[in-house]
């Protein structure tokens, strides 16, 4: 393994899912649903396969039907208009969109600011691009993880090229507020920075939280690469259909990198994803309500077992503090948890450069059937009370 990648071994998600299989523990580690998405969307994939649509290389930028559906979605949800031909690119999941964006936009030696804890592929993507990652730590206050705007401002140097934002935020469950995003946008404009924003949980926002795309702020449309995917919104994480929207020059740059990573993403699933994006609002509302109910079951179970539970405003995840259990090392805690309680979780510390800042936090996924969540909660309650 070369020096750029030497620090990245197996992803924590693969390691923890393997541990769950080995021990038979309930897997609330890796974030994937245990029920598949809508039947009609699966049927759309089957139809495409049968009718011979997408069985050979689809067009490099993605099939027109999906690019049009992505543009229509951004317009309908956020009032953002993008030209499907020049401002939308289909990728192999959000993961490829992230890597291709970093490879296309970062020069070796450029600094990339990422919110810490950060999704693991950001660090590897920055490293592959030869960039330097500069983490700005989200800190808990008043039950949620917050961005310190002064800290963000102080992190920008003459070498900063790009801000890598994620909202709703994995693993903390924070949704950046309109005010926080407005300040990020002002800073990006003032310091002439590019922004890459990962919005794969855009449809999973709860209570009074609101998902506002950074691209919708003044001065941001033409400096922002917005990333999302079908995995989370439609419960098909195995399909790996993602997309990028942004100004033509940025999308063309990302496409230049993308064409040498995968060339194109899987054809028949693009047709199905196009149909999924056109589902009526009732689908998105029901999906959100279902996930909200799951969040509440898991959060209550974790609180009963003695964890401090942070408010999840968005995503699939509840972040907890294990110190009320008399524990302080999330790594050791998660390694022992399958034996001790029969549950698998993720230590948030893996998403930090300042590992001590993340040490006591542990993430549990709630994108599971209710009986799985109540079983896990009962196991934790028995182990810790
Ligand atoms: N970004 C975040 C924040 C994620 O949590 C995930 C996956 N869980 C991804 C990107 C990757 O998305 P995809 O599966 O579409 O590649
Ligand atoms: N994004 C998922 C999570 O945070 C994992 C995806 C993966 O395994 N790469 O759990």
Quickly describe the structure.
By secondary structure, the protein is an alpha/beta fold. The chain has helices at residues 12-23, 39-50, 64-78, 93-105, 120-128, 149-155, 178-190, 230-233, 248-258, 267-277, 281-304, 330-341, 355-358, 370-384, and strands spanning 26-27, 88-91, 111-116, 132-137, 139-141, 144-146, 160-166, 194-198, 224-229, 242-245, 308-309, 317-321, 343-344, 346-347, 361-365.
Task: Give structural attributes.
binds glutamine; single chain; alpha/beta; Aspartate Aminotransferase, domain 2; 14 helices; 385 residues; Aspartate Aminotransferase, domain 1; 2 domains; binds 4'-deoxy-4'-aminopyridoxal-5'-phosphate
Please describe what this structure looks like.
This protein has 2 domains: 12-37 and 282-384, Aspartate Aminotransferase, domain 1 (Alpha-Beta Complex), CATH 3.90.1150.10; 39-277, Type I PLP-dependent aspartate aminotransferase-like (Major domain) (Aspartate Aminotransferase, domain 2), CATH 3.40.640.10. It is 42% helix and 16% strand. It is built from 14 helices and 15 strands. Strands 2-10-9-8-7-3-4 form a 7-stranded mixed β-sheet, with helices on both faces. The chain has a 4-stranded antiparallel β-sheet with strand order 11-12-15-14. Helix 2 (39-50) runs antiparallel to helix 10 and helix 4 packs across helix 9. The protein is globular and about 60 Å long. The model has no long low-confidence stretch (mean pLDDT 97). Bound molecules: 4'-deoxy-4'-aminopyridoxal-5'-phosphate and glutamine (GLN). Residues 11, 13, 30-31, 170 line the site of glutamine. This is Pyridoxal phosphate-dependent aminotransferase. Residues 26-380 form the Aminotransferase class I/classII large domain. Keywords: Aminotransferase, Pyridoxal phosphate, Transferase. Its cofactor is pyridoxal 5'-phosphate.
